[in-house]
Specification:
alpha+beta; globular
Length: 135
């Protein structure tokens, strides 16, 4: 687990393609895409500049509901989300570590299996979207 609760991996693709790939992977995995937010477009709409930055919000009530049943306030961190962003030459894909979410909300043993499943699922879809999967 990271100190700030964020996990960041480098993507082999541009921001838009990374989020396109992530959306496709999560849909194939049976998850729902709730929203896609293009922060660069929002900045452009108000006359300011921002490097490419896109957020995808996704999940499945089957996975997240047990966490909220355990501690309802965990819903502030659900559904899960991932941010693709570009710095000076590289593209990154960041997401909140579900173990950090569990610690933040003092989730109990009742949530252990759901937390483990979400963590494993996130690792898999993030790797596929970023081009890290070797299969």
């Amino acid at each position: 687990m990271t100190e700030d609760g964020l996990i960041t991996v480098q993507s082999r693709f541009g921001v838009t393609e990374t989020i396109d790939r992530l959306a496709e992977v999560v849909k194939r995995a049976g998850l729902l895409v709730f929203a896609r937010i293009d922060h660069q477009a929002g900045a452009r709409d108000v006359g300011t500049a921002l490097r490419p930055t896109e957020l995808l919000i996704f999940g499945n009530p089957k996975g997240g509901t047990p966490l909220m049943q355990d501690q309802q306030l965990a819903g502030i961190d659900l559904p899960v989300k991932a941010l693709a962003w570009e710095d000076e030459g590289k593209v990154w894909l960041s997401y909140t570590d579900v173990h950090w979410i569990a610690e933040r909300h003092d989730l109990r043993d009742a949530s252990r299996d759901a937390v483990a499943a979400i963590a494993a699922g996130m690792e898999k879809v993030i790797a596929a979207a970023a081009g890290m999967d070797q299969s």
